[in-house]
Amino acid sequence: MLKRLCLSVSAVAALSLVGAVNAAEYLNGIEWQEPAVVTPGKTDSDAPSDAVVLFDGKDLSLWNNGENWIVKDGVATTGKGRIQTKESFGDCQLHIEWAAPTPATGEGQGRGNNGVLIMDRYEVQILDSYENKTYFDGQAGAIYKQQPPAVNAMRPPGQWNTYDIFFTAPRFDDQGNLESAAYVTVLHNGVLIQNQFELLGDTPYSRPPQYKAHPPKAPLTLFEHGNAVRFRNIWIREFTPVKGKQVREPFIRNGNKETPIK
């Protein structure tokens, strides 16, 4: 009986300690804006309510030179020359679906070559890399000439591939000096292949990367390299973090007692 009583007292003490711990609350002293309400798409591929739908299967009217590509049965196929969005974007989330030509012809960089050029200068490579060898920082999902994908997540030619790209634009000061680099995260068919990669600059073919000051927003470009790459379901949403205002120093509240964090 005495043993049971001791156990009960110990249990009560433990519960009291848990209650005391839970009663203490850390407050950062920040007054936050209320996050906006966004309605997600019916699937992860569908555009959320705040996205700009750049290609919905009907036309390429939101793109410069879009009239020179082929739009049929909900699909846009590479035509003559690159296309570029009429609108400009900075920090963003980009969804794009693409398929390499069939039958597969050519090899290396000559097979299903295209590219997503963010801000018209930072390229995520599009290439038929299904059982097709090339230089690793030029295969599908590479940050061109800077970083290979962590893995090759390609589907066979003719099947649809999905890129979900999360991009942070570089920042420049008033004198055009780089303050912070560009960063990019890429999912290829739901597989993480680039994780917050810090770009070394732009992604040219014939020289080292470099940063040159440019506006905070710029167009999105799709290449044309003579391969009939197909595209569908392209949408983009600008990303703006919720802002907060520091209204007091951080503190711990425990009941009626407030302890500043120093």
> Which structural category fits the helices and strands?
mainly beta
CATH superfamily: Exo-inulinase, domain 1
**Strand content range:** 25-35%
Looking at the structure, the CATH topology is Jelly Rolls
Instruction: Output the number of helix runs.
Output: 1
CATH architecture: Sandwich
- What is the total number of structural domains? 1
| CATH class category label | Mainly Beta
Give the helix level as a range of percent.
under 10%
Reading the helices and strands in chain order gives HEEEEEEEEEEEEEEEEEEEE
Backbone shape: elongated
Radius of gyration based on Cα positions: 25 Å
- Give the number of DSSP strands: 20
**Could you give the distance between the termini?**
49 Å
In short:
It contains one helix and 20 strands. It is mainly β. It has a single domain, classed as Exo-inulinase, domain 1 (Jelly Rolls), CATH 2.60.120.
What do these coordinates show?
- This protein has 262 residues and is mostly beta strands.
- It has one domain (52-238): Jelly Rolls (Sandwich).
- The protein contains 1 helix and 20 strands.
- Strands 3, 5, 6, 8, 11, 14, 15 and 17 form an 8-stranded antiparallel β-sheet that branches. Strands 4-7-16-9-10 form a 5-stranded antiparallel β-sheet, with no helix packed on it.
- The longest helix has 22 residues, at 2-23.
- The protein is elongated.
- Keywords: Signal.
- It comes from Novipirellula herctigrandis.
- Residues 51-237 form the 3-keto-alpha-glucoside-1,2-lyase/3-keto-2-hydroxy-glucal hydratase domain.
- Residues 1-23 form the signal peptide.
